[in-house]
Amino acid sequence: MGTPTLVAIFFTTWWTVLFAVLPWGVRTPEQAEAGHADSAPVRPRLMLKFAVTTVLALVITAGIYYVGESGLISFREMAKGM
What we know:
The chain is mainly α.
């Protein structure tokens, strides 16, 4: 598995995990300020969510790399059978 493949897997995984992490801990205000949406979060904590997303994406990408390189699942053998 080459570097461009790992970067593509990480990028795809990062975006997928980000959309799963974004709703964590979201609280809306009791009364929205003038000009703000009622659904806007009080404290979105985006930097924390980006950090959590990066760590989770790294772990998932490492797992995908391990499975691909260890031979637990041989994608080449599966493709031969198709």
